């Protein structure tokens, strides 16, 4: 890897912005972030591999796993709400909670 004038400028800008004392902490934080990112992506790949059904051998016969039901066969658990609808429902719930808190304060 050759250090061209571009890299020298980048290093100088980093030194000016963060100072010599903060650069090791910055590099350490970037390293931790990269390790966490790599661990998460590898676990995602591992989870994908575990989700794939494998053939099962029962008494000398290979039994293929049954395919998962299609999306058309499974009814949705709840209707999908737009962000605006979610915000409206949260505001309504907050108003109900505030009203309940006011009546509880009056009774106390």
From TrEMBL:
Which Pfam family, just one, is annotated for this protein?
A: TatA_B_E
Please describe what this protein does: Part of the twin-arginine translocation (Tat) system that transports large folded proteins containing a characteristic twin-arginine motif in their signal peptide across membranes. TatA could form the protein-conducting channel of the Tat system.
Species source reads Nonomuraea longicatena
Question: What is the name listed in the Swiss-Prot or TrEMBL entry for this protein?
Answer: Sec-independent protein translocase protein TatA
Q: How does this chain assemble?
A: The Tat system comprises two distinct complexes: a TatABC complex, containing multiple copies of TatA, TatB and TatC subunits, and a separate TatA complex, containing only TatA subunits. Substrates initially bind to the TatABC complex, which probably triggers association of the separate TatA complex to form the active translocon.
Gene behind the chain: tatA
How would you describe this protein's topology in the membrane? Single-pass membrane protein
- Cell compartment(s), UniProt: Cell membrane
PANTHER family linked to this entry: SEC-INDEPENDENT PROTEIN TRANSLOCASE PROTEIN TATA
Q: Which UniProt keywords apply?
A: Cell membrane, Membrane, Protein transport, Translocation, Transmembrane, Transmembrane helix, Transport
Q: What is the lineage of its organism?
A: Bacteria, Bacillati, Actinomycetota, Actinomycetes, Streptosporangiales
Compositional bias of kind Low complexity: 54-75
Q: Which protein family is named in the record?
A: Belongs to the TatA/E family.
Tell me the HAMAP family matching this sequence: TatA_E (MF_00236)
Is Lipoprotein there in the keyword field?
A: no
Region (Disordered) spans which residues?
A: 40-84
Return the NCBIfam families for the record.
PRK00575.1, tatAE
């Amino acid at each position: 890897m050759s250090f061209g004038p571009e890299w020298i400028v980048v290093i100088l800008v980093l030194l000016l912005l963060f100072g010599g004392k903060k650069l090791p902490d910055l590099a350490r934080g970037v390293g931790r972030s990269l390790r966490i990112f790599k661990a998460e992506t590898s676990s995602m790949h591992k989870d994908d591999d575990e989700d794939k059904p494998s053939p099962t051998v029962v008494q000398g016969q290979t039994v293929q796993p049954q395919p998962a039901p299609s999306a058309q066969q499974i009814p949705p658990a709840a209707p999908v709400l737009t962000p605006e609808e979610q915000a409206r429902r949260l505001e309504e719930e907050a108003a109900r909670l505030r009203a309940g808190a006011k009546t509880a304060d009056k009774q106390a």
